[in-house]
Amino acid sequence: MFRNILVPIDLHHENTWREVLPLAVEQVRSSGAKLHIMTAVPVLDLALPAVHLPKDYDKHLLEHARQGLTTLVNEQVPDDLAVNLIVKEGVPYREILHAIEDNHVDLVIMASHTPEIKDYLVGSNAARVVLHANCSVMVVR
């Protein structure tokens, strides 16, 4: 049924993948889909005058994220599944939407937390993806 399944995760929050990855693996196996796992590194506001970061610090962050994602996949995804790793830099929900388009994703499986007061004001990443995605989105709490 599905050809490309995307699982967006936050490497700093285990709850974004602990329950979602097994569901995604099950869906990939049952539908013969390709698994895409992604993370988004927030853009640093380098306009802050007090911040003095080394040159190419953003590239270092992206490489660190790629290594973290690779380690997570090696530990949590069965070896017989091919996985496309995606590391983006930017606002998470926007990068998820770009990854959907770029990889012809027809199902997103992502975690969401119980809404907090700030989520009612600005919205969560999951809510924004559900609202704007052109494919099915499964949200796991």
Describe what this molecule looks like in 3D.
With 141 residues, the chain is an alpha/beta fold. It has one domain (4-140): Rossmann fold. The chain has helices at 20-31, 57-76, 92-102, 117-122, 125-132, and strands at 4-8, 34-41, 83-89, 107-111, 136-140. The protein has a five-stranded parallel β-sheet with strand order 3-2-1-4-5, sandwiched between helices. Helix 3 (92-102) packs parallel to helix 5 (125-132). The longest helix is centred in the middle third of the chain and has 20 residues, at 57-76. The protein is globular and about 50 Å long. Mean pLDDT is 88; it is low at 118-122.
Key attributes of the depicted protein:
141 residues; alpha/beta; Rossmann fold; five-stranded parallel beta sheet; 5 strands; 40% helix
Question: How do the helices and strands line up, and which of them pair or pack?
Answer:
Layout: E1 4-8, H1 20-31, E2 34-41, H2 57-76, E3 83-89, H3 92-102, E4 107-111, H4 117-122, H5 125-132, E5 136-140
Parallel strand pairs: 1-2, 1-4, 2-3, 4-5
Helix pairs in contact: 3-5
* Portion in helices: 40-55%
Q: Tell me the count of domains.
A: 1
What is the H/E string? Answer: EHEHEHEHHE
According to CATH, what is the class? Alpha Beta
**Architecture per CATH nomenclature, i.e. the level-2 architecture:** 3-Layer(aba) Sandwich
Specify the biggest β-sheet: 5 strands, parallel
What are the segments in which pLDDT stays under 50 over at least 5 consecutive residues? Answer: 118-122
CATH topology grouping: Rossmann fold
H/I helix tally: 5
Under CATH, the homologous superfamily reads HUPs
How far apart the termini lie comes to: 24 Å
* Sheet/helix structural class: alpha/beta
- The shape is globular
Order of strands in the sheet with most strands: 3-2-1-4-5
In total, how many beta strands?
5
Q: Strand portion, in percent?
A: 15-25%
Mean pLDDT: 88
Rounded Rg: 16 Å
